[in-house]
Design goal:
- By secondary structure, this protein is α/β, with parallel strands linked by helices.
- The strands form 5 sheets. It has a 7-stranded mixed β-sheet with strand order 1-10-9-6-5-2-4, with helices on both faces. It has a 3-stranded antiparallel β-sheet with strand order 8-7-14, with no helix packed on it. Strands 13-15-17 form a 3-stranded antiparallel β-sheet.
- A hairpin with a 2-residue loop joins strand 7 and strand 8.
- It is globular and about 85 Å long.
- The structure holds pyridoxal-5'-phosphate.
- The site of pyridoxal-5'-phosphate has 14 residues, from helix 4.
- Pyridoxal-5'-phosphate binds next to helix 4.
Length: 435
């Protein structure tokens, strides 16, 4: 049987080929993967494993190994699935969303002292790169209902040094992109969408991640869908940049062109003002396969999450102290990555800290995961003053410390959903009764 050959040289079936290392996987390796993905113990499990192993050995005898394990047809397949789903042609499968953001930041030729406007409430990954190179983070205050970046505050915080605006679609609820894009065009600023939670969300008939100049989605294991634990899709609307984006993923390597007596060329990636050097964010074929399988299920997953959110809203809407997750409308279609629940402290007779303790005591896990970024020590260590910044983000301070929490929407039985709704209503009733 002809051996799969190493991708770089593609020597084919020669006397001395550069064999692909992918052929080294064997029946035992595959059984370990099956044991990992389908875990268990006990006699029944071991008997089932032994039966499968026997069949896998038969399969091994009549099959060939994959040969390619990185950046091959499965990665391309995932990108095509993402393109078809999003209505773009620029999907580039990278190691994670944070890597996708880096490509955009590098395209902007971001330098120390350049300003980047991020929402006050997000995950640290949104701003990790600009923070790491000494660019200046400017924190936009948030909308009190969605806790997304408030476009009016973005407008107030733009200066001649602003190079990028980074809207984050928190919980998969689309940011109001029109005013953000208008500001950006007016001031020649690039927009990077942090779409980590928002694969499949829609804004005014367009998929989130196809509106800004760049975007990246996350397929980390905690998001709506995953590519075996890690992964991201980066997209761009910058004319002519999509092929460069692929090279930006893998050290700028260019197989379409060769230098003398060499197999390929390497060139810098064109940035907005000057070229930049690419590093390596390559993904594996297994991740590509995993992502394609999950993209096919994405709509069904969003629909299930939506149903759970609708149920919670129907149960919670009666109590005026509870402000439910906004379910969207014709123009705004969220992915329901999280259930954002807010309370009105005056009507509840206490703030969210008390409420969260009551929920925890009833066994309902709620995660105040997304908080004011300027409160982290790393921000202080990089020279920022949290209390000064807090004064410029009053809504963020109010909603984070007094009003909101996040609840899970997926993988719950109807019983668990009902229990959660009961626990919320009981907790708020206790607070209202002064208990
Ligand atoms: C998870 C997350 C990211 C980072 O995604 P990775 O794929 O893990 O790099 C970025 N932004 C937000 C808001 C996130 O929740």
């Amino acid at each position: 049987m002809a051996k799969a050959t190493d991708f770089r040289y593609n020597t084919g079936a020669t006397r001395v080929p550069w064999a692909a290392v992918g052929e080294n996987y064997n029946v035992n390796d595959l059984m370990e993967i099956i044991r990992f993905l389908m875990q268990g113990e006990g006699k029944e499990y071991e008997d089932a494993i032994a039966a499968v192993k026997e069949q896998v050995a038969k399969l091994d005898a009549v099959s060939t190994p994959p040969g390619k394990l990185s950046l091959g047809s499965k990665v391309e397949g995932a990108e095509e699935a993402s393109n078809a789903y999003l209505g773009t042609d620029s999907s580039t499968f990278v190691t994670n969303a944070t890597a996708g953001f880096e490509i955009a930041y590098k395209y902007a030729n971001l330098k120390p002292g350049d300003e980047v406007i991020v929402p006050a409430i997000t995950f640290i990954a949104t701003m990790a790169y600009p923070l790491s190179i000494g660019a200046k983070l400017v924190f936009a205050d948030v909308d009190p209902v969605t806790i997304n970046m408030d476009p009016a505050d973005v407008a107030r915080k733009i200066t001649p040094k602003t190079k990028m605006i980074v809207p984050v679609h928190i919980g998969g609820y689309p940011v109001d992109m029109d005013p953000i894009m208008e500001l950006a065009r007016k001031h020649n600023i690039l927009v990077l969408e942090d779409a980590a939670h928002a694969f499949g969300a829609m804004y005014k008939g367009k998929k989130i991640g196809t509106i800004g100049d760049f975007a990246a989605f996350s397929f980390h294991e905690v998001k709506n869908i995953t590519s075996f634990g890690e992964g991201g899709i980066a997209t761009t609307t910058v004319p002519g940049f999509k092929d460069h984006m692929k090279r930006a993923r893998f050290v700028g390597m260019d197989f379409s062109h060769k230098i003398k007596d060499w197999l390929y060329d390497v060139s810098a990636i064109p940035g907005k003002e000057e070229p930049f050097v690419a590093v390596n964010y390559s993904t594996t074929e297994i991740q590509g396969l995993g992502l394609s399988l999950q993209i096919a299920r994405n709509e069904e997953i969003i629909a299930q999450r939506r149903q759970a959110a609708e149920y919670l809203n129907s149960r919670l809407a009666g109590n005026p102290a509870l402000i439910c997750q906004d379910l969207g409308n014709e123009d705004i279609k969220p992915t329901f990555h999280l259930y954002l629940l807010q309370i009105d402290p005056e009507k509840a007779g206490g703030d969210v800290q008390t409420f969260k303790k009551k929920l925890e005591a009833k066994g309902v896990t709620n995660i105040p995961h997304f908080g004011p970024l300027y409160r982290f020590r790393v921000t202080e260590q990089m020279g920022y003053n949290a209390d000064e910044i807090a004064k410029t983000c009053p809504v963020c301070e109010e909603v984070f410390y007094k009003r909101f929490t996040h609840l899970p929407l997926y993988g719950l039985s109807q019983d668990q959903l009902e229990y959660m709704a009961d626990a919320i209503l009981e907790s708020i009733a206790e607070m209202q009764a002064g208990k």
